[in-house]
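Category: protein sequence paired with discrete backbone structure
Discipline: computational structural biology
Format: plain text, a pair of labelled lines
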Amino acid sequence: MTAVFESPLGPLYLTIQDGALTNISYEPLDQLENLETEADFFTQQLVFTQLDEYFQGTRLQFDLPWQIMEGTAFQKRVWQVLADIPYGAVWSYQDVARKLGDVQAVRAVGQANRKNPLPIILPCHRVVGKNGQLVGYNGAEVDKKEWLLSHELQHFHF
């Protein structure tokens, strides 16, 4: 099933399949499936609730079913590391590569980060250049990354 969530960043186009969130896109999806099942409707409500809470600044961590449907083994490893970056934290691409055990993989980490199918949930916006520069963001404009980081810093309580 597909659904549209209206966020402060504009519409988020969601794909939910077999009771799990499988994709978030800032652009309209090519495939407009509407095969609704009761489990998918329940999952949509859960995703909407948690996204609402995140954008209100009351949710620091997502607890919802998600599944990666596509991607290389390396990309999936990168995306799993993204899931471990705490709310309000900022890591460099080099930090992610180091966490994977290969400091030479910085560019590959950047490419995987850019292809993240679940931005916000798997927080690729928390990954920046080595010098702190905001570079790349899931193929979308860097201003979304800047907004998300600013939002988290505003609601993060040390």
